[in-house]
UniProtKB/TrEMBL annotation:
Family, as annotated: Belongs to the universal stress protein A family.
A Pfam family per the record: Usp
Organism: Morganella morganii
Highest taxon listed in the record's lineage: Bacteria
InterPro entries: Rossmann-like_a/b/a_fold, Universal_stress_UspA, UspA
Domain annotation UspA: ranges: 1-149
Full protein name: Universal stress protein UspA
């Protein structure tokens, strides 16, 4: 049914392997990906790298630091996704820098995602006032979205 599934994961979550939100994703992802040759794209976003930093004298140092952070994020993402029981030949890992909402929507278009799976916590005052990433993805995505709580 689905050819490309995008799974957004917050690697900064405190308790990934315990009772955290990410630990609730595997049954849903595995069920949806269980069908024939579904590509599962695991994805995380790291904080935005400010444009003004490109004007600094130490730009090369900052760029090197950003690359190290991206590599570390990719390693952590790969480590986290080992809890998913999915054929490794059908998994892909992506790390982007910027706004989570924008990057999720952009990657979903780039990979032609049929389904986006994203976790969401119970709403707090902040998310009620400012909105959550999951709510924005549901609102603006062109693909179907499965929100896991």
């Amino acid at each position: 049914m689905y050819k490309n599934i995008l799974v957004a994961i917050d690697i900064a979550e405190d308790d990934i392997f315990g009772e955290g939100l990410t630990s609730k994703l595997p049954p849903h992802v595995e069920y949806m990906a269980d069908k024939t040759h579904t590509n599962v794209h695991f994805f995380t976003v790291i904080p935005f790298f400010p444009n003004f930093a490109s004007y600094a004298r130490e730009y090369d140092v900052l760029l090197d630091e950003r690359n190290k952070i991206t590599d570390k994020a990719l390693s952590k993402l790969i480590s986290i996704t080992k809890i998913f029981n999915i054929n490794p030949a059908n998994t892909h890992h992506h790390v982007k820098t910027g706004s989570p909402i924008d990057q999720i929507l952009r990657l979903s278009t780039d990979i032609n995602a049929d389904l986006i799976i994203i976790g969401s916590r119970q709403p707090t005052i902040t998310t009620r006032l400012l909105g959550s990433t999951a709510a924005a993805v549901v609102r603006y995505a062109k693909a179907s979205v499965l929100v896991v709580r």
